[in-house]
Amino acid sequence: MRDYREFLAETLIDAASLQSRIAELGVEISQDYRDSDLVLICILRGGMVFLVDLMRQITVPHMMDFMAIASYGTGVRQSRGTVRLTLDLQTDIQDKDVLLVEDIIDSGHTVHYVLEFLSTRKPRSLKVCTLLDKHERRETDVPIHYCGFVIPNKYVFGYGLDLDEYYRNLPFIGVIDPEKYHQNG
Ligand code: IMP
Ligand code: MG
Questions:
Q1: Number of other residues whose CB lies within 10 A of the CB of residue 37
Q2: For residue range 4-40, what is the model confidence (pLDDT) as tens digits?
Q3: What DSSP string describes 122-164?
Q4: Residue 4 and residue 163: Cα distance in Å, rounded?
Q5: Active-site annotation holds for 106
Q6: Is 72 in the pocket of ligand 1 (CB under 6 A)?
Q7: In angstroms, what is the span from residue 47 Cα to ligand 1's centroid?
Q8: Residue 108 phi/psi, 5° resolution?
């Protein structure tokens, strides 16, 4: 695979800015959930890196669980508006205070679907924390209670977000240069 520097157009959010904003979110969430029974739910795989850093900034006791859905196929950059559950939770979230932790909200279809699905399990409360909000692209209204950064309509990668499944490990959020990045080469 190619070195990301060959198609990085710009660093949108550097590692230090990510970590300091996540620390702020951790403080806010810890205050808001101090008398709660918090469960963090992460949608695999994009939200994983954010979840791991965020939970270490949350000082109230909490559980965590993962779920997976299929929305974007490899190489496809458009949300199809249809989402399928591929991995269910292991935790019973009934009467729990659920916080859905997402990497990015784009069209909003994914989070819309996941919120509908989670609400059928009767949590006591259900809120959304997203690292990135690509607000201009929204097609379905979704409530966002905690947001790291509102970003412009550019395709980003790193810090959990992939380019055809690679580069999730990068500690910053980068923007691709579409002229220089092509799938499989
Ligand atoms: P939505 O259903 O359109 O809101 O899509 C959300 C999902 O699309 C995210 O969880 C990501 O997996 C993916 N996605 C949307 N925009 C980007 C991006 O700029 N980079 C990487 N993945 C993205
Ligand atoms: Mg995702």
A1: 17
A2: 999 999 999 999 999 999 999 999 999 999 999 999 9
A3: --SEEEEEEEEE-GGG-SS----SEEEEE--S--EEBTTB-BT
A4: 10
A5: yes
A6: yes
A7: 10
A8: 100, -10
Residue 91 Cα, ligand 1 centroid: separation in angstroms?
25
Contact between 100 and 119 (Cβ < 8 Å): no
Round to whole Å and give the CA distance between 98 and 106: 21
Give the containing element (helix H, strand E) for 10: strand 8-13
- Asked if residue 117 has its Cβ within 6 Å of ligand 1, the reply is no
Task: From 50, 51, 72, give the residue whose CB has the most ligand 1 atoms within 8 Å, as the site to mutate.
Answer: 72
Residue type, 98: V
Enumerate residue ranges in the chain where pLDDT < 50: 74-75
At 78 the pLDDT is: 57
Q: Considering every ligand atom shown, identify the ligand nearest to the alpha carbon of residue 156 and give its number.
A: 1
Helices 15-32, 48-55: crossing angle, 10 deg rounding: 60
Segments in the chain forming alpha helices (H):
15-32, 48-55, 109-119
